[in-house]
Amino acid sequence: MTSFIYYRFHLMLTDICHSCEGGKPSLIWLSALFRMDPRLRGDDRKQSEDDKKRTIDITQSVKITWKRCYLAFSGLLFLFSKNTWPNSCGFSRMFLLFSMKKILNRQNNLILGLLCFLVAPVLAKQPIIIDTDLDKDDWAAIAYLINQPQLDIRAITVEGAGASDCVHGISNLVKSLQYWHRTDIPIACNNQLGMYKTHFPSTWRNPGTNYFKKLRAHHSKPVLIKTDAAKLINEVLQQSEEPVVVMAIGPLINIAAAIRLDTSLWLTKVKGFYFSGGNFTKEATSIAKYYPKTETQTWNLFIAPEAGYRVFKQSLSVVLNTHKTARLLHNNNSMYENIDALNQQHQLNRFGKIVYALQSSKNNYWGDALTAMMLVMPEVCRYQDVRMNVLFKPFQYSGVSKLSSEGIKVHYCKDFNLPLFQRIFMQKMSSSNSQANDEEKRIQTKTVQNQRATLSRDGTY
Q1: How far is 134 from 131, CA to CA, in rounded Å?
Q2: Where do the Inosine/uridine-preferring nucleoside hydrolase domain residues begin and end (predicted)?
Q3: Distance CA 123, CA 170 (A)
Q4: What torsion do the CA atoms of 255, 257, 258, 264 make, to the nearest 10 degrees?
Q5: Among candidates 363, 293, 279, 282, which has minimal Cα distance to 325?
């Protein structure tokens, strides 16, 4: 009987090991476990001598397979638990303990099977899409996210109406992905201008172009460049078996176009929508100016107001980094001094080098990097739930975000922990970022769901 148990667990382990390669645990092993051989269900049939010999051979094969999986899983978790999954340290220690045993017994095999089932979901990475206009703080956000091994960046799309046009934006992005050894990420750009044929001010456009012209990447593999940004976004959503997080840190032209192509796809596949922009007001008339932009309006909604209006009509799970919090990171001397100190000490990694090259002491901003950290480590903010909509009427008002009981529910960053943000971000830009990983693990012990469960009656915590 025990031989057939080994055989069924062998099927289970084989399936789990194969499925873990794609980060998608399978449930085939459940059917294998419950479809036990009739002899295990109490039938009186006797085994033939050939059956006995076959099961002995299977047993020996299974023992070897289990031992290899012990070593494979323990090595994998030991290498990545420090830098990746906050919940995997205990598993890695347990696997290593079992791996050190010279003799594998049946009890250990059973425990290993259960642990494989528990660990397999942990191995899965969160797929995300980044929609950006490649401004200075966008580069900081992208560098921070690419340096997160628990994320699977499926695509980066560029908004040509924002801080970069498509010619310079795509060229600069290709060079940076080659420099970061991430040529596996497909990219695309939409050169459509905003509502009034406008884009960001010309003096802001294409930051870092001179730097990128001189940047030489040793990783010269080509980057896949798609011609349609909206279609690329929807292709990623369609092909993903897991829900996808979308982070938009530029005008929403690509996002609105993708939603228009397939609204139902967005409602079923988008797990969360993170956006840099919006500034709540109770009376639209106070900032109801369509051109030029007033101080209280945000560029990402002002440039393409119709796109913002369409996106915020959808029932998405929205998390906002608004003008109120983002502006606190505009010309932040402390942020620049810290990254400048890392540069002078030759401690910047390849992500930090690009971020540093695009900032300056008199003109630096990091707002979109906060949006990125909200995605990875939501504990950096205190949140409040409100209802809002984006108002738009041609030649009357443009991209006004207004609190409204009839609007969609959004989860916005009310205020944030600046020292924590600065410390974690700089550690991720450092050539030795193990401290950032350890601190993120400690902070991430409380999940977003647990945080939201602690919301007080007034919507804050």
Answers
A1: 9
A2: 128-392
A3: 32
A4: 110
A5: 279
* Cβ count near 390 (within 10 Å): 25
For residue 223, give the DSSP letter.
Answer: -
Q: Which residue has the tokens 């915020």?
A: 312
| Residue position matching structure tokens 């250990």 | 108
297-343 pLDDT, tens digit per residue, is 677 888 888 899 999 999 999 999 998 899 999 999 999 999 999 99
**Burial class of residue 295 (count of CB atoms within 10 Å of its CB; 0-12, 13-18, 19+):** exposed
Q: Which residue has the tokens 């980094």?
A: 321
| Structural domain boundaries, residue 67 | 2-123
User: Residue 461 domain-assigned?
Assistant: no
Nearest to 413 by CA among 295, 321, 327, 297: 321
Going by C-alpha positions, the residue among 41, 147, 169 that lies closest to residue 373 is 147
**Does residue 115 sit in the same domain as residue 20?**
yes
- Residue 341 and residue 444 in one domain: yes
Most confident of 186-195, 203-212, 436-445: 186-195
Strands 244-249 and 270-276: parallel
Single out the residue in 101, 123, 145 at which a domain terminates. Answer: 123
- Answer whether 336's CB lies under 8 Å from 359's CB: yes
The verdict on 77 and 142 lying in the same domain is: no
Tens of pLDDT, residue by residue over 341-355, are 999 999 999 999 999
Q: Where are the beta strands (DSSP E) in 47-201?
A: 126-132, 151-159, 187-190
Would you state the pLDDT for residue 65?
Answer: 55
Could you say which of 71, 100, 123 is where a domain stops? 123
* Nearest CA among 346, 302, 295, 345 for reference residue 324: 295
Running DSSP on this structure, what letter comes out for residue 457?
T
Average pLDDT of the chain is 75
Does 6 map to a domain? yes
Q: Is position 144 within any domain?
A: yes
Q: Is cis: bond before 243, omega within 30 of 0? A: no
